[in-house]
Design goal:
The chain contains 17 helices and 10 strands. It is α/β, with parallel strands linked by helices.
């Protein structure tokens, strides 16, 4: 899988070379206050971003932000490298993977500091859930090489469990062959005992009587720089004023969530989640507040970054050793802190 990732990035770079003129046209936006953000998926996990958009906090900063949605971190990174996005919201593992590319991406703000997925069981569980309950079972953990699957693999191994397909011998069959957006449907049709889902999917599935939320992966994994804002180093240099304003608006989004009742927050999120009830939105917000999912200052610590690299290397069999100072720029978050 790591080879596939490297080939994918190489392909993007070749395309960039072949389409330089087109990219200059796409990137040469005459109005630097117009920002295209590509998010890895659409989830209440990113609530501060949507609150900032829906409450007009970006407009207050003079920014016109368009939010587009990809189908995974690879797709978001491709959008950034190809010039179709100015900023991405994705797992920082993609920044590690592309650290050797020209005009490499840099993280300038951390939105989430915990794994935002929840373990969903097909059957109701009596008592408190423990990872030992995964012995001899199958759990759908998402795409191989993605941070959700890697974090899940990491915590399973940390619990002393063995990952493999021999469930009769007590091994945990961790499935990493399912695309992120297809996990819920695969869980319902496969007969597998467990899966991991983000909100609002976890709450929706539970309300439909098709699963039971039994635990938060973030409670087990501890702090990890899970989802971050990143952009190319050239954009960071040429649009520092806009980057600072962008982070300031998102931080206001977080503060709105932290300082208001979940019912009020649900109303602010409603335009971004048509089809979800106010009660479902409240539950999802409260779930993420309970695990301290969001970073209050958007500053990434070197300790948490090193833990991320440890997770990547231990689960992928790689030997990444990136320099924190080369891939992370906390100056904007520190300035507004």
């Amino acid at each position: 899988m790591q080879k596939v990732k490297k080939i994918s990035i190489l392909t993007v770079c070749l395309l960039l070379c072949l389409t330089t003129c087109l990219i200059f046209v796409g990137c040469g936006n005459s109005d630097p206050n117009k920002i295209t953000l590509n998010q890895v998926t659409h989830s209440i996990f990113y609530a501060p971003l949507y609150v900032a958009q829906n409450m007009g906090f970006f407009k207050d900063e003079g920014l016109d932000v368009t939010i587009e949605t990809a189908t995974g971190s690879d797709a978001s990174m491709t959008a950034l490298l190809s010039g179709s996005a100015d900023i991405i919201l994705a797992g920082p593992e993609t920044v590690v993977y592309t650290s050797t590319t020209k005009d490499h991406p840099i993280v300038f703000g951390q939105l989430t500091q915990k794994d935002g997925s929840f373990i969903v069981s097909r059957d109701e569980i009596d008592g408190e859930f423990t990872l030992d309950m995964l012995k001899g079972k199958t759990i759908i953990g998402g795409r191989a090489g993605g941070l959700p699957a890697m974090t899940l693999e990491y915590v399973i191994k940390q619990a002393g469990l063995t990952i493999g397909e021999n469930t009769s011998a007590g091994e945990v069959n961790l499935r990493t062959d399912v695309a992120f957006n297809n996990i819920a449907s695969e869980f319902q049709t496969s007969g597998n005992e467990f899966c991991t889902l983000f909100e609002p999917n976890a709450t929706t599935l539970e309300n439909q009587g098709k699963g039971h939320v039994v635990s938060a992966v973030g409670n087990v994994s501890g702090e990890i720089p899970y989802t971050c804002f990143a952009t190319k180093s050239s954009y960071l240099e040429n649009n520092s004023e806009q980057v600072e304003k962008f982070l300031k608006a998102v931080k206001r989004g977080y503060q709105y969530i932290a300082n208001n009742d979940s019912s009020i927050v649900a109303e602010a999120l409603a335009p971004s989640f048509v089809g979800m009830t106010k009660e479902e939105l409240q539950i999802a917000v409260e779930q993420y507040l309970a695990i301290d999912a969001w970073s209050d200052d958007m500053i990434m610590s070197e300790t948490s970054f090193n833990k991320l690299v440890e997770i990547i290397n231990s689960t992928q069999g790689t030997s990444y050793n990136p320099e924190f100072s080369e891939l992370i720029d906390n100056s904007f978050a520190e300035k507004i802190a």
